[in-house]
Amino acid sequence: MPSLKDLKNRIASVKSTQKITAAMKMVAASKLRRAQEQAEAGRPYADRMERMLTGLAAVAKTAGQGPKLIAGTGKTDVHLLLVITSDRGLAGAFNATVLRETRKQIRELQGRGKTVKLFTVGRKGRDNLRRDFANLIVESVVDIGRPKLGFADANGIADRILAMFDAGDFDVCSVVYNKFKSAISQIITVQQLVPVALPAVAEDTASNIVYEFEPSEEQILAELLPRNLAIQIYKALLESAASEQGARMTAMDNATRNAGDMIKRLTLVYNRTRQAYITKELIEIISGAEAV
């Protein structure tokens, strides 16, 4: 049985941890509000841009034209996965879900005979994937969004991906990230970025509607496709940032509650142990008095 001093020290330690987790919960909650507002504000523009370019790309592809970002390389042998995680932990299953989906994608692609390359964003993803897939990591970025996440961060990542694509380092690029739904729910998302995915609906619509463009479709696409890549990456970064803060707030709330429950249990054990010591001392005193 632990001594009273040991129990008292453990209760004090858990109380100290509870204060830390409660403070982290409050910080995450304040950051979540701003991150959620940014993510929700960025969705309409990114979705509309993607929808507009998808329709425009479908028209150009139907006409047998279009830049390389639409037509692709003509092969699907090499896949680049852009994996977005966080730089810090203590966020529940936020990073684990992204890494689990990434490993699933790697196994499926390699099972089909494809070559897989990894572009990691975030220290947690880089360090975890390095254990098993160090030879697949070709690029890594950390400390994104410090002190504040901006479009320049996404644009820098997009420029690297475009340089790799122009150099023929991959055929298909997809991003894996957590999409924010609520503070307690994030949706794991895999989105193809390069070449632009053309849904069947968009192709059917493009074949029935005739558009006139000024300037030409090629000029519009050449200007907007690289920008759209940066916008889609920026949207993924915003969604991931909001998801991280939501997951951290939930995890720290659970940790604070668990610490409270542990303090109650330890306090109960402490009181019972103290009563046992007092009872034992009383018995010894009474026994001694009777012996005299």
UniProtKB/TrEMBL annotation:
<keyword id="KW-0472">Membrane</keyword>
<dbReference type="GO" id="GO:0045259">
    <property type="term" value="C:proton-transporting ATP synthase complex"/>
</dbReference>
<dbReference type="Pfam" id="PF00231">
    <property type="entry name" value="ATP-synt"/>
</dbReference>
<protein>
    <recommendedName>
        <fullName>ATP synthase gamma chain</fullName>
    </recommendedName>
</protein>
<comment type="subunit">
    <text>F-type ATPases have 2 components, CF(1) - the catalytic core - and CF(0) - the membrane proton channel. CF(1) has five subunits: alpha(3), beta(3), gamma(1), delta(1), epsilon(1). CF(0) has three main subunits: a, b and c.</text>
</comment>
<keyword id="KW-0375">Hydrogen ion transport</keyword>
<dbReference type="InterPro" id="IPR000131">
    <property type="entry name" value="ATP_synth_F1_gsu"/>
</dbReference>
<keyword id="KW-0813">Transport</keyword>
<keyword id="KW-0139">CF(1)</keyword>
<dbReference type="GO" id="GO:0042777">
    <property type="term" value="P:proton motive force-driven plasma membrane ATP synthesis"/>
</dbReference>
<dbReference type="GO" id="GO:0005886">
    <property type="term" value="C:plasma membrane"/>
</dbReference>
<comment type="similarity">
    <text>Belongs to the ATPase gamma chain family.</text>
</comment>
<keyword id="KW-0066">ATP synthesis</keyword>
<dbReference type="InterPro" id="IPR023632">
    <property type="entry name" value="ATP_synth_F1_gsu_CS"/>
</dbReference>
<dbReference type="GO" id="GO:0046933">
    <property type="term" value="F:proton-transporting ATP synthase activity, rotational mechanism"/>
</dbReference>
<dbReference type="InterPro" id="IPR035968">
    <property type="entry name" value="ATP_synth_F1_ATPase_gsu"/>
</dbReference>
<dbReference type="GO" id="GO:0005524">
    <property type="term" value="F:ATP binding"/>
</dbReference>
<keyword id="KW-0406">Ion transport</keyword>
<comment type="function">
    <text>Produces ATP from ADP in the presence of a proton gradient across the membrane. The gamma chain is believed to be important in regulating ATPase activity and the flow of protons through the CF(0) complex.</text>
</comment>
<keyword id="KW-1003">Cell membrane</keyword>
